[in-house]
Amino acid sequence: MAHYYTLGSIPHKRHTQFRKPDGGLYSEQLFSTEGFSDDYALLYHCHPPTMIIKTEAQVDVSPQIAEEKMLKHRSLEGFKVKPVKDYLQSRVPVLVNSDCHIVLAAPQESMTDYFYKNTDADEMIFVHEGSGIVHTQYGQLPFSYGDYIILPRGTIYQIHFNTPDNRLFIVESFSPLRYPKRYMSKYGQLMEHSPYCERDIRPPQDLQTIDQKGDFLIKAKKKGMLYGLHYGTHPFDVIGWDGCCYPYIFSIHDFEPITGRVHMPPPIHQTFETSTFVVCSFVPRLYDYHPDAIPAPYNHSNIDSDEVLYYVEGEFMSRKHVTKGMITLHPAGIPHGPHPGAVEKSIGAKETKELAVMVDTFRPLMLTKQALEIENGDYVMSWSE
């Protein structure tokens, strides 16, 4: 959940008359999660957000599975995904299961002719390269390198990029994406031991109410199908809103690392969680400071999860031949660890400048056909001395 926030004009009491200057009523919309049993927001529109005037034929955009079952380490060269002008067409799913889709994208152009809404999944968009503004019905979210853009399912948005050079690492989550529970007080505040706090969360700003009628296309994704829905009023006609369910940005550069005398387990890097996977941030930090410490991670078996690492920047002490935008998949069932020579080389090292995003899924991932096109097939043998 995000903390309570409000922007624009709202009535003193919810579900009561809220009148325009001309005497007409603003249209109230409840944006709720898990039915009516969890976080929500109330938005006030100039017009009802229900005025569909035309529909288009649906398009199948579901991932094409190449390998449903596997048991070997994999590596994908993420920057080999080719840039594509259109934002939605640029999105390439590479690793998927019934809980999440991991997607790479290199869009070149801003969204100008349509708006987008993912009705099935929360979206986490990590900005590896590029900058711009995400426009939503809640307001604007300026973003740049290192930002996690968190968009609750059902958020209508347009992304405007500053340049054609953009690289995004996207996770679509079919369960709510939240702060880790162990960081939260029973009343919902991020506690003192959390690696970030509410001050680091950037909510929407500069709410611009666009009171226009016309033909506005929203492309909505549901169950792997993309639907074109034309509305008679602009989706960003919101005069004000409040609540705890809204898009926001958190920068990986604001994640404060937790360190110790000996090597700490991966959960110290946890940044977000769902009921089916976790997201971790590996950031520049001091290494372990016990006199006999081994900074390199120990070999470990993922008994209950598939481990995905997305390499962003810096030197990675435990891996050889790492490239920007590279993805490694270490599936549950077989151990993995530092590459040969990495353990001895790490002894005496004081700090790391690495930057990476990790996704650990509790159910096995499947490779798509697009993933095979950018795979480094030799990676599974890279531990052989």
N→C terminal distance: 47 Å
CATH architecture of the largest domain: Sandwich
Number of domains: 2
Report the portion of residues in β strands: 35-45%
In round numbers, the mean pLDDT is 94
- Shape category: globular
The CATH superfamily of the largest domain is known as Jelly Rolls
Assembly annotation: single chain
Tally of contiguous helical segments: 3
Helical content, roughly? under 10%
Low-confidence stretches: none
CATH fold name of the largest domain, please? Answer: Jelly Rolls
Q: What is the number of beta strands?
A: 30
CATH class of the largest domain: Mainly Beta
Based on CA atoms alone, the radius of gyration comes out at 22 Å
By secondary-structure content and strand pairing, the structural class works out as: mainly beta
Characterize the biggest β-sheet: 8 strands, mixed
Task: Write up this protein.
- The protein is mostly beta strands and 385 residues long.
- It folds into 2 domains: 51-62 and 81-234, Jelly Rolls; 253-381, Jelly Rolls.
- Helix content is 3%, strand content 39%.
- It contains 3 helices and 30 strands.
- The strands form 6 sheets. Strands 4, 5, 10, 12, 13, 15, 17 and 18 form an 8-stranded mixed β-sheet that branches. An 8-stranded antiparallel β-sheet has the order 6-30-8-9-16-11-14-20. A 6-stranded antiparallel β-sheet has the order 7-26-25-29-22-21, with no helix packed on it.
- The chain starts with a strand and ends in a 13-residue tail after the last helix.
